[in-house]
Fold this sequence. Notes:
The structure holds two protein chains of two kinds. Chain A is of the alpha/beta class. Chain A has helices spanning 33-38, 80-86, 106-109, 123-135, 161-166, 190-197, 212-224, 266-271; strands at 9-18, 23-30, 46-51, 55-60, 71-76, 93-100, 113-119, 143-149, 171-176, 186-187, 204-209, 232-235, 251-252, 255-256, 263-265. Chain B is an alpha+beta fold. Chain B contains twelve helices and twelve strands. An eight-stranded mixed beta sheet of chain B has the order 3-2-6-7-8-9-1-10. In chain B, strands 5-4-12-11 form a four-stranded antiparallel beta sheet, with no helix packed on it. In chain B, strand 2 (22-29) and strand 3 form a beta hairpin. In chain B, helix 7 runs antiparallel to helix 10 (289-307) and helix 7 (214-220) crosses helix 12 (330-339). The longest helix of chain B has 19 residues, at 289-307.
Amino acid sequence: MNANPYLPDMATIVEVIQETHNIKTFRVVINNEERMKAFTFRPGQVGQLSVFGAGESTFVINSSPTRKDYLQFSVMRVGEVTSRLHQLQPGDQIGVRAPLGNSFPLEDLKGKNIVFIGGGIGMAPLRTLFTYMLDNRKDYKDITLLYGARSPADLTYKAELPEWTSRKDVNTVLTIDNPSDGWEHKVGLIPNVLLEINPKPKNTVAITCGPPIMIKFTLQALKKLGFEDENILTTLEKRMKCGVGICGRCNIGTKYVCMDGPVFTYAQLKELPSEL
Amino acid sequence: MERFITKENLTRLAEELAATHRVLAPVATCGTVTFRRFQPGMALDLHSRMAAVSPKAATFPQTETLLTVKSEIPEKKPVITETLPQGKSVVIGCRPCGARGKLIFNPVYETDTTKDPYFILRRDNTVFVSLACDRPETTCFCHSVGSGPADPDGSDVLLTLVGDGYVARSVTEAGEEILKSALFADAGAKGKEADAKNEKAREMMGEAHDYVSAPAKLLARFDDLDFWAAQSAKCISCGACTYMCPTCYCFNITDDDQGLESRRIRTWDNCMSHTFTLEGSGHNPRPTKAHRLKNRIGHKFSYYPDLHGGVMACCGCGRCIKQCPAGVDIRQIVKAAQEYSE
């Protein structure tokens, strides 16, 4: 980050991947070579992307700090800034303010079994940690990835799915909501498939992200499976502007999602006033 | 340092300062007193009534450009330029509450890890010459939030009206510099008179309300949406309270697109608006005015004091009460939460 917290670094889009009909993944490189080289972050941290003239929006950095050729952001087209982002091509210039926010508690996760539960675009913040763990595989015990979307067409990171599903050192389960021709994986809602997989809570941390309704039922399923609140992690989203705890809109009571989050344990969430 | 300045000389002081500073002073326009840029020849209006809008804009403008971005053709490489505030300002004739408002910004805008250069530069280059209040209005409650009608905190010079002029006391070094002007005279025995006036003004405010229990009591009502629906029933979500408030520091950042050039601008934002927390997905964590009023009052009397050593994010100026077109009174709402029994 710059001394002026509002000043973005200029960056170049080096690759654009069309993930689904409304999600694109952008790989970006900060123009200043020294700053790009020195750029460090932890899985779970976010960044603000600027399309000058349109504005800024917050996205998780979904590449892993272990792979530093570029920073990767996945963007669903929903509003003004994201629509303008979707028009950009490799070579185009954007602004990046990153890293912002807290991160997954990497140190506490070492030596644990990990269960990732991602729904739709909620896979983005999990991808960074999942990739990080694959690159440091020996530090973790069993790793399970449950990733679901409405339909096969709604799955992001399709280019990586063959690797994720074929690796012997992770158990990757894909699911879609309704049957579809040629689909060889699970069919069913994420919480139901989770119960079917039946991960054991002992020495296991569950990490989930997805649409609010999915999170709600996934938390219920995890509790049913016997997971402690402290061993359930999620990452929140709020409308943000400054990203550095000043502008005053992403708070839940005394906590600011941009500074105290976006990563929270379920135990921490329960202590917060109910304003998700 | 204690000096005395006549009313006439205060205007001359403003004229002198205007040569080197941006001078902001209360000016009556169409029946409303607001802080305007003072130019020689203008009349100071310190006494007709408290300015409708606080002098917040001196350190936190309603709109300011943070950056400009110029795209160079044909490379299309945008060049970003920071537009940090330049120059020095003086606010003359604000009330102590208005000068104190910016203190609430400090622990948020300047932390160990994050420094907002725009606010900090403006704050450090603005001198506040405040006028102690000689009588409270019915909406005033500065004495209940740890302040008072002659509170020097946040001011650089504090004036007290005595006879045909003001006893002027420096609060900071910057204030002392102002008092070095030859327009000031020896205060003589007038200092005692000023003390008596300030004491009288404090007495006129009556007993202070105790907000110590407010943070916990407000949090206890968090999930009681019926309580907040009742408290916010009159509110029309206009946001006047937020814009008039000396301590409301929330802002929006937007881009102003002018083709090859764009400006990134920061503007006062209004937490009473539906769009304040509206997310791209259509989800809104604060979907009704009850949720939004709960956050506004919670922020000032519960979250902020919890985070910042018990200090309420309110300077008790009462502008939100006076300017509310629907008669929402923040004092009554906090009190209702404090007195609530299950």
